[in-house]
Description:
The protein is of the alpha+beta class. It has helices spanning 3-32, 46-50, 55-63, 105-125, 144-150, 167-171, 189-196, 212-230, 233-241, 247-253, 266-278, 285-301, 316-335, 354-364, 392-395, and strands at residues 75-79, 86-91, 127-133, 154-160, 204-209, 305-311, 339-342, 370-378.
Amino acid sequence: MNGKKIRKYAVRGLVGMAGAGLLLLTALYIISGGFMKQYYLEPWSEEYAAQYDDPRISLTARGILAASGHNMQPWIIRLDPSDSMVFYLYADSTRMTKEVDPYARQMMISQGTFLEYVAVAGKKEGWDTKIKLFPDGVYDESDLARSMDTLPVAKITLAKTQPQDTQLYDALYLPDTNREPYQAKELSTSQVSGLESLSGTTGISVTVYQKPGMLSSIGKYALQSAQIEAGVSRVMEESNVIFRASEYQKNQYRYGYSVEGQGASGFMKHILQGMLTIFPSLNSGEAASRNFINYTRTSVDSTPAYAMIITRENSREVQVESGMFYSRLVLTGHTLGLVMQPLSQALEEYPEMNNLYTEFKQAYAPDSGTVQMLFRVGYPTKGTPLSMRRDVMDIIAK
């Protein structure tokens, strides 16, 4: 065979391989749902909330943009039928993550994050939001799920007032969590002060840590807790159940995890989603554990500062107030050019984490306090995609 024929067949072979590769990528894109409309992102548009005349529903549509544990969005809203200015927030007992959060502490924090977003949106829209926590009494801890179903977390009463322009409102529409690497740059004195000054006199405070020794110590706890969690199969399976591998699933469920949380975006996001749809084992079992540990290590290695919310008490009211406080920190952080990411593993209270949890608590809240939140803080290296949100009418009790 002469050289011309060899080159001819080689070119044909390369063209054939390229064609096959293109077909494969196209197939993965279709399997991912790349051509679908992303209904799960609609709540992030300001026009979405504006379509509702009832201010209670309009404010709820802003509230669901708040961060929640495992993005479960565990909220139910009941509109008062006799008073158009009153609505109630209930915790959705069907959305408890009992393996990682057996005492529902994180779930109560998620109630608070929602309430603060509602309050911030209310100021912008000209509503004074009076929030009364546990208006019908606190939960019966021996029958927690039933208590959640019957007792409201909060009663929200609206009163018309003058609209107030606030930077915090604009920050509602920014991603609440950035899991990407952060810049190797210390926070300024004014930024640290801007966050720590939000601490009130109600026994809830925030402290920012950015000295090298503290970064190393806290980072070790974060990585060790991730390694423990990665070895507990029932905990990892609980997370895997709420993983959404495609646009089809994200539109169907509109809560939980997705590949965007692992830094995937653009066309490659759809390729990865297509692969995970065909081969779910790529993100389960030992593979998921390895990915989780490696991802945590990357986060720890690129964290210029950590922060903690510490409380003197650990009542249900304080847990909710801690969530409200965290939302204020997230929104204020955006106005200061900062982003955040919770690192909750060391604070989880299941048996395998107990020793590390106790050690961490003694180190950072030694006077019988509680570390309600541990999170990274820093300057972003790049933007992060918006995460799934449920339709507001699915939050409103029928």
